[in-house]
Every structure is written in structure tokens, then in C-alpha cells.
């Protein structure tokens, strides 16, 4: 009977090792979460540069703070966006006309999501904002709505 227990435990041990490895090696931190973490650490006032937060080469970013249709996204970015997810807020980075990074962040029609990052003012309904690397520098404003913290990133003027 003890022999069978050892035999059953070996496969179980392998499964546990694989699961632990998968959980440790999987990085689920989105760019929006990285920005929110940095914004949360701000004491009074701070700035965030997307260039400093990203670890890939890019020259233009398209950001939508409100859900957009696939047609609206395609028209805004000028290419077919094959990563579309309905009811999300896309952030799409380009380098030399090609998509090099994208994420589709969740949205909520009833209000902000906890730790949501909004580029501009929360009441602005601009579908897409476009920034170059040099233009993507923002002042952080911490906000609260329905007991949820969120962050407005107001673009600093490029000199």
C-alpha cells in the first residue's frame, strides 16, 4: 500500500513544480499597471515618461481611454489592428509604422476601474490620443471616484 502512495505522489510532485514555475515565470504586469504603481508612489507631484517605463523601442503611441470599435481603431492607427478585444481601452505602440506592443485594458461603462490610468481629463471623450516618444511625458494627478483610486496623466508641453 505504501508503494502505491509513492508512485501516486511522484506525478503530483511534478505537477506542483510545473505550476509553481508557470506562476513565477509568467509576468502579467501590463503597462497600465506599471504606470499605476509608479503613480501610486508619487508623494505630492511627479511626472511619468512612457519612454522610461517601456523596455522596447517605439516612436509613436496611440491611446484610447474609452472603448472603441475595431473600425475606429483601424482608422485612427492606419493599419489593421488584429489584437482587437471588444469593450477594452487599447494602448498601441508603433516603431517605424509597425505595431511593437499593444494591450487592451478593461473598461467599465459605470465609471473608472481601480488603478485605471486616464490620459488627459476623465471627462474628456477624445477617442484617441497620439504621442511621440518626446511628447509622452505626463504630470500625475491622483483621483478618487466611488472609493476607487485612479490616475489622470496630463501631458507636459514639449519645448
Which whole number gives the mean pLDDT? 85
Give the helix/strand class.
Answer: alpha+beta
How many β-strand stretches? 8
Percent of residues in beta strands?
25-35%
Give the helix level as a range of percent: 25-40%
CA distance, first residue to last residue: 78 Å
Q: Order of SSEs, N→C?
A: HHEHEHEEEEEE
Radius of gyration: 20 Å
The largest sheet, given as strand count, sense and whether it forms a barrel, is:
4 strands, mixed
Note the overall shape. Answer: globular
How is the largest sheet built, in terms of strand order?
A: 1-7-8-5
Low-confidence stretches: 14-25
Q: How many DSSP H or I helices?
A: 4
Count of the domains: 1
Give a structural overview:
By secondary structure, the chain is of the alpha+beta class. It has one domain. Helix content is 30%, strand content 31%. The protein has four helices and eight strands. Strand 7 and strand 8 form a beta hairpin.
Question: Which key phrases capture this entry?
Answer:
four-stranded antiparallel sheet, 8 strands, 30% helix, alpha+beta, globular
